[in-house]
C-alpha cells in the first residue's frame, strides 16, 4: 500500500507483505483470496501508522487505486463473502487440455476468439480457469445454480470486499482487467455473448465493467480501528498492473513503451486509439480508459511468464540464496555465466512462442559451473526474454525503440539493468522510484471525476529523475550471446507431450515407451554398482 502526494508524485509512505503461492500439484499455482484481502488490511494499517509518525493526517487520503495481477481468477459467495476455491493464478497450467479441446472448435479461417479479444487461446487467461472451476468444484457449481456465485479477477474481489462485501459490496472491474478474461470484446467494450456461450460461462456471475478512472464506490474500513477515519471518505478505482505501469511511466503517446520486471516480464507499447494485431506473437490489449466519457487506448503486449519468479525459485526451491537481493551479489562475483544458459519455462513459453510444451532447462554446464554462474544465467534469462519480445515489438511497429523505459522491483538490481542494456544494445532508462505500477494506479484514482486531485495534462505532470544504463559490450558479442540463448530455447520445447488430466490425476506427463524405463533402470543400477566399487 503506497501513498503519494498528488501534486509532486512523491512517495510519502508504504508497506508491503509477501503473499504465499501454493503449488498443490504439478503445474498448478494457487493463492488464498482471504490471505490477499488480509494482506491489504495489514498494509493499509501499517502505512497509516507510518503516516501518523510523519505527522500526516490520514484524512487527507482522497482516493485509492487498485492495481492487480490481471488474469488470476476468484469465485466467491455473495451471501457469505467466502471464496469458494483458492484463486487460480495466471501462471497455472491445469487447463491445457481444455485449451486443446476448445481449439478444435475454432474454425481455421475464423478465429473469432482472437479477433474479438486480441488474445490467443491459452491457459494464461481467465475464461479457461473459470471453466475449470465450474467443471470441477462442486461448491462453485452449487453456488451458480443457487445464484450465489460471483466471479472476478483480484481487483473485483478486493473492491467488492472493501466496499461492503456481503452487505452491498460493489461488484465491478475495469476495461483493462476485463480485456484479459477472453470473455470481453475489446472493440465494443462489453462482455461478449458469443464468447460466453463458447466457454459456457453464465453472464450473470460477471462483474460490471467500468472505465479505469471513475468512482466505483466508497471504502468501508471500520473493521480496522486505526483507520476508521477513512470510513466512507475514500473512493475506489482500478487498473490492471501492466496498464497502471504504462500510466505511471506516462506513456500516453502512440509509440511509447515500457517494460515491467515483476513475477513475469511485460513489455507494453501504446498504439493509441487503434487496435493493432500482432503478426509476431504479441497480444492486443486495452491500455486504459481514463474516464467514463474518455476514449479507450490500446496496446501491444509481450508477456513473459517467469522473470522475478526465477529468483524466488532459486531462493525457495534450490536454496542457492536466502533473500532475493543476494542474487546480485552472487552474479557480481563472477560477472559471467561461463557458457551456462537458463531457460525458466516453468509454465511453458509465453510471447512470442506461445508454446505450452516447453519446460525449464539449464544447459551448458561444466564441472567449473557453480551457483554464481547459475545466478548470473538466471538474470541473463530475464534479459534474453525481454530481447525476444522487444524484437517482436519492433517488427510489429516498424520503428525500433531507441531506448527502453523500465520499472518494477527487479530494476533495483544494477547488474540486471546493465545486462539488459548490453543484450538489447540500446540504453535502458529507469525512474528513481521503480514502483510505477502503484504510481499509475494512484494517478488514475486521483484524476477521476469527482476526485480531481491529480492532473494528467502533459504540462502538469511532474518530471521524473531517471537513471540511464548504456550498452558496454560490442554489438557482435551481444548477438553471439543472444543466438546461443535461442538455441537453448529450442531445446526447452516439446518436453510435455501428454498433459495430466484436469481433475487433478497426477498421471505421468511424458508418454514414453517401456524400453525407456528399462534402460533407465539398468543405467541407474550400473551407476550404483560402479560407485560402490562392484565394477
Automatic annotation (TrEMBL):
KW Kinase (keyword) present: yes
Molecular functions per Gene Ontology: ATP binding; glycerol kinase activity
Keywords associated with the record: ATP-binding, Cytoplasm, Glycerol metabolism, Kinase, Membrane, Mitochondrion, Mitochondrion outer membrane, Nucleotide-binding, Transferase
Listed GO biological process terms: glycerol catabolic process; glycerol-3-phosphate biosynthetic process; triglyceride metabolic process
CDD domains: ASKHA_NBD_FGGY_GK1-3-like (cd07792)
EC numbers on record: 2.7.1.30
UniProt key word Magnesium: no
SUPFAM superfamilies reported in the protein's UniProt record: Actin-like ATPase domain
Domain Carbohydrate kinase FGGY N-terminal, chain residue ranges per copy: 3-248
Annotated GO CC locations: mitochondrial outer membrane
Pfam families assigned to the protein according to its UniProt record, in alphabetical order: FGGY_C, FGGY_N
Pathway involvement of the protein, from the record: Polyol metabolism; glycerol degradation via glycerol kinase pathway; sn-glycerol 3-phosphate from glycerol: step 1/1
Domain of life of the organism encoding this protein: Eukaryota
Compartment(s) where it occurs, according to its Swiss-Prot or TrEMBL record: Cytoplasm; Mitochondrion outer membrane
Stretches assigned to the Carbohydrate kinase FGGY C-terminal domain: 258-448
Family of this protein: Belongs to the FGGY kinase family.
Protein name per its UniProtKB record: glycerol kinase
Naturally occurring in which organism (per UniProt): Sousa chinensis
Organism lineage: Eukaryota, Metazoa, Chordata, Craniata, Vertebrata
Amino acid at each position: 500500500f503506497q501513498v503519494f502526494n498528488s501534486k509532486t508524485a512523491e512517495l510519502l509512505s508504504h508497506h508491503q507483505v509477501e503473499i504465499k503461492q501454493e503449488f498443490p500439484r504439478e503445474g498448478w499455482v494457487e493463492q488464498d483470496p482471504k490471505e490477499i484481502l488480509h494482506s491489504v488490511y495489514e498494509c493499509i494499517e501499517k502505512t497509516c501508522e507510518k503516516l501518523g509518525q510523519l505527522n500526516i493526517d490520514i484524512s487527507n487520503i482522497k482516493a485509492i487505486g487498485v492495481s492487480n495481477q490481471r488474469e488470476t481468477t476468484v469465485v466467491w459467495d455473495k451471501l457469505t463473502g467466502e471464496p469458494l476455491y483458492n484463486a487460480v493464478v495466471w501462471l497455472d497450467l491445469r487447463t491445457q487440455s481444455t485449451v486443446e479441446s476448445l481449439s478444435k472448435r475454432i474454425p481455421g479461417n475464423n478465429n473469432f476468439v482472437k479477433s474479438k479479444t486480441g488474445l490467443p487461446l491459452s491457459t494464461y487467461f481467465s475464461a479457461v480457469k473459470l471453466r475449470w472451476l465450474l467443471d470441477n468444484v462442486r461448491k462453485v457449481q452449487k453456488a451458480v445454480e443457487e445464484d450465489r456465485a460471483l466471479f472476478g479477477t483480484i481487483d473485483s474481489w478486493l473492491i467488492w470486499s472493501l466496499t461492503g462485501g456481503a452487505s452491498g459490496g460493489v461488484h465491478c472491474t475495469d476495461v483493462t482487467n476485463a480485456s484479459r478474461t477472453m470473455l470481453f470484446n475489446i472493440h465494443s467494450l462489453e462482455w461478449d455473448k458469443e464468447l460466453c456461450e463458447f466457454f459456457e460461462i453464465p453472464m450473470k456471475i460477471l462483474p460490471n465493467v467500468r472505465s479505469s478512472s471513475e468512482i466505483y464506490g466508497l471504502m468501508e474500513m471500520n473493521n480496522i480501528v486505526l483507520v476508521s477515519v477513512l470510513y466512507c471518505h475514500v473512493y475506489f478505482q482500478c487498473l490492471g498492473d501492466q496498464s497502471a505501469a504504462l500510466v505511471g511511466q506516462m506513456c500516453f503517446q502512440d509509440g511509447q513503451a515500457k517494460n515491467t520486471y515483476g513475477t513475469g516480464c511485460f513489455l507494453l507499447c501504446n498504439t493509441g486509439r487503434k487496435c493493432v494485431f500482432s503478426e509476431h506473437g504479441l497480444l492486443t490489449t486495452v491500455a486504459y480508459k481514463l474516464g467514463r466519457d474518455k476514449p479507450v487506448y490500446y496496446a501491444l503486449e509481450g508477456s513473459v511468464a517467469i522473470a522475478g519468479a526465477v529468483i524466488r525459485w532459486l531462493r525457495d526451491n534450490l536454496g542457492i540464496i536466502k533473500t532475493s537481493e543476494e542474487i546480485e551479489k552472487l552474479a557480481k562475483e563472477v560477472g559471467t555465466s561461463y557458457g551456462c544458459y537458463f531457460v525458466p519455462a516453468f509454465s511453458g513459453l509465453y510471447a512470442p512462442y506461445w508454446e505450452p510444451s516447453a519446460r525449464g532447462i539449464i544447459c551448458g554446464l561444466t564441472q567449473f559451473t557453480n551457483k554464481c554462474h547459475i545466478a548470473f544465467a538466471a538474470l541473463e534469462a530475464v534479459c534474453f526474454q525481454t530481447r525476444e519480445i522487444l524484437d517482436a515489438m519492433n517488427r510489429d511497429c516498424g520503428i525500433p525503440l531507441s531506448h527502453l523505459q523500465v520499472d518494477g522491483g527487479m530494476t533495483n538490481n544494477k547488474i540486471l539493468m546493465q545486462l539488459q542494456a548490453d543484450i538489447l544494445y540500446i540504453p535502458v532508462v529507469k525512474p528513481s522510484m521503480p514502483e510505477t505500477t502503484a504510481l499509475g494506479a494512484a494517478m488514475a484514482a486521483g484524476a477521476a471525476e469527482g476526485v480531481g486531485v491529480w492532473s494528467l495534462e502533459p504540462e502538469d505532470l511532474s518530471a521524473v529523475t531517471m537513471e540511464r544504463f548504456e550498452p558496454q559490450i560490442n554489438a557482435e558479442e551481444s548477438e553471439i550471446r543472444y543466438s546461443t540463448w535461442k538455441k537453448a530455447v529450442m531445446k526447452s520445447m516439446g518436453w510435455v507431450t501428454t498433459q495430466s488430466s484436469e481433475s487433478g490425476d497426477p498421471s505421468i506427463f511424458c508418454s514414453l515407451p517401456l524400453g525407456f524405463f528399462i534402460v533407465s533402470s539398468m543405467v541407474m543400477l550400473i551407476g550404483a554398482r560402479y560407485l560402490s566399487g562392484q565394477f
